From TrEMBL:
Keyword Cell division: no
Name of the protein this chain belongs to: 4-deoxy-L-threo-5-hexosulose-uronate ketol-isomerase
Gene name of this polypeptide: kduI
Positions with a binding annotation for Zn(2+): H198, H200, E205, H247
Its biological purpose: Catalyzes the isomerization of 5-dehydro-4-deoxy-D-glucuronate to 3-deoxy-D-glycero-2,5-hexodiulosonate.
Pathway named in the protein's UniProt entry: Glycan metabolism; pectin degradation; 2-dehydro-3-deoxy-D-gluconate from pectin: step 4/5
Keywords, sorted A to Z: Isomerase, Metal-binding, Zinc
Length: 280
């Protein structure tokens, strides 16, 4: 088979207090993405959020349904966000082709039936990173380039958190039901993302770290404000952040991460800031 999946269950913050490093990584780290000629999914019971990847190296790959969905087609009751982090590729949705170059995004609406992924050059395959959330309204499939994203310049070099937030699949750019996706790029000399940290109890989030230089790593912080934990992460790994958890990270170099959210609303600014002096 070209499609594989695993299921992760939701965790209470009190349970996380008792987890050792191995258990924490097994529960929240996603380290099996970007397998050549495979579609990989992790289905989380946090907001029924799915994280996945498709890397069509020697053949086209099809978006197939998975057993937990109990649906004939993957998108019968879902929406999908795709961002290409590899070579040039094509996503075909019900006969319409969308060419995605590096860091282009595609929103695929509910009720889409036939979705396939291809690379322009198998020696430099496309790497399609995917997020999916339940949907109850069909919105048009829409391509969004990085140039078309709504951009926020945040932080500063003095606090090592100067970064550009590219809001790509957000309500100001494209219509979605509850899925939001974007990309944050840290400037050279900066290592902190999402600092000050925050929580948003109305939405969960997944971070996917890319452009982490060889030999470098990112320490991703999670957990309640007063009792945080960390997970060391490598390039092209993702991490699940529950709604009760902060989500922030610090790298040994600058890097980029893709964020995806789902939950109660589409208000990007709906967050509770965690004062740096109160982190524990």
């Amino acid at each position: 088979m070209s499609t594989s999946y695993e299921v992760r269950y939701a965790s209470h913050p009190n349970a996380v207090k008792k987890m050792d490093t191995t258990e924490l990584r097994e529960e929240f780290l996603i380290d099996n993405l970007m397998k050549p000629d495979e579609v990989v999914f992790v289905y989380s019971h946090f907001d029924r959020f799915i994280t996945g990847s498709a890397v069509p190296a020697t053949k086209a790959l099809k978006l197939e349904t998975i057993d937990p969905l109990r649906m004939e087609n993957f998108l019968d009751r879902r929406e999908l966000g795709v961002i290409n982090v590899g070579g040039d590729g094509v996503v075909t949705v019900d006969g319409t082709k969308y060419e995605l170059t590096y860091k282009d995004a595609l929103y695929v609406g509910k009720d889409s039936k036939d979705v396939t992924f291809e690379s322009k050059d198998g020696s430099k395959p496309a790497k399609f990173y995917m997020n999916s959330a339940p949907a109850h309204q069909a919105y048009p499939t829409t391509k969004v380039t990085k140039a078309e994203a709504k951009k926020l310049e945040l932080g500063s070099l003095e606090t090592a958190n100067a970064r550009t937030v590219n809001q790509m699949l957000v309500k100001e750019v494209v219509k979605t039901c509850q899925l939001q996706m974007g990309m944050t790029e840290l400037k050279t000399g900066s290592v902190w993302n999402t600092m000050p940290a925050h929580v948003h109890d109305r939405r969960m989030e997944v971070y996917f770290y890319i452009e982490v230089p060889e030999g470098q790593a990112v320490s991703h912080f999670m957990g309640p404000i007063k009792e945080t934990r960390h997970i060391w992460m490598q390039n092209e790994q993702a991490v699940i952040s529950p709604a009760w958890s902060i989500h922030s990270g610090s790298g040994t170099s600058n890097y980029t991460f893709i964020w995806g959210m789902a939950g109660e609303n589409l208000d990007y600014t709906d967050m509770d800031i965690s004062p740096i002096s109160e982190l524990r």
